[in-house]
Amino acid sequence: MKFRKTAPFFIVLLLLLSACGSSKPELSDEMVEQIVHDLIERASASASSVSEADNENVSVTDNDVDNNDRKKSESSETEDEDIEKGDPEDSSESTEQSVKKDTNYDESPVSDADPQESEAVISDEEIALRTEQAIQSGLNVLSGSLIICDWDSLLTLQGHPPGDALRQNLVPEPDTYYILQLKEPQAIDLMSSDGTMRYGRECTMIDLGSINGTDLQNGDYAVVAFDPNDGCFPSDVSLPLGEPSLFDYELLAVRH
Fold this sequence. Notes:
This protein is α+β, with helices and mostly antiparallel strands. It has 6 helices and 7 strands. Strand 2 and strand 3 form a beta hairpin. The protein is rod-shaped.
């Protein structure tokens, strides 16, 4: 590297020396010595510059090495800290597994069963007792099966299937009916629809009006109690035909 940059000066020096040794010198000895002296100084200066540049390159390279070593050291320290700290999620899972193992944790699913469904079925003796108490309080008591149906199904239930002549005089209604169909006909006392009098009549079913606030379902066996003033017999052609309807009642017992 140094030889390549100083070679032109030595070539000039050789040419000058050759010229001095020729038969026709054009330069004096003093001039040649001066030129040689200048060339030597330039060569020395050039060599010094080359040496300084090489030293700078070496210094830069050393700095790069030091920086890389420093980065590797910092990265290693960070990884060591992460290993010491550990993953909090993994630690949490490990803790939960340890708790389950130490406390014999029960992983069986929680039951969503309705408490009412788990209760024992009400006995006949209990139903008889509640019925007797209601009657002694002046209430009417009826028992039977709940039927939830529409206008068409209710007419069929009462013996008037599709095509029956009676249907021609009735206007279909979009209502849903909650009918308690009695086991056997039963005489009860109720008010007339205009509220002017109360009288007794035998019925085979009764319209509950609604089942809101109860756990009644279609097909359930139910026992209901009601005050004579809380229902009426019909005075017009309304469903259920000729059967009473209730405004309010108390559910004494139910069997699903």
